Amino acid sequence: MTIKKTKTANIIKRVLASIIDHVILSLLNYPIVLLTNDITIIPFIFNVLSSCYYYTYFLSSKTQASIGQKILNIHTIRCDHKKIDIRLAFDRSLSEFLCPTILMMSIQAINMNINNIFIVSIIFLITMVTFVTSTCWYLIALFSQKNQTLHDIMFNTMVVDNE
Description:
Keywords: Cell membrane, Membrane, Transmembrane, Transmembrane helix. By secondary structure, the chain is mainly α. The chain has helices at 11-36, 41-59, 67-71, 86-110, 117-143, 150-154, and strands at residues 74-78, 157-161. It has one domain. It is built from 6 helices and 2 strands.
């Protein structure tokens, strides 16, 4: 059995790839925002679903890389070097958006006109906990040996430079 040498992608490449992917997704989702006018939940749900589909499709593809990752010559691999299947790609993608989704929903709830101080306090607490969790979710990559975020660690994946 031969062990493949891989060079872990640096944080800057990962962030830039993510920005490129988010710009692409924003452009694709923009028509939905225009069509739904003031109904904020529909574009939000569509954004989460399209993001999960986008990352699931690309991470389970032959290149195992999103468009942003392809541009920056990086890709996602399983730590055991087996191909990422569609289920792993979906689970990883869903987990990646879990905290930000809860955070956005709680921020929307804070903006609602709720007169019950207890409910407002609970929503605020959920927002703060989710914000801290979301921040740590990605900051962990700065201290991880393989620059892995929490969803990488959970699903035994990492992002590496193309060979």
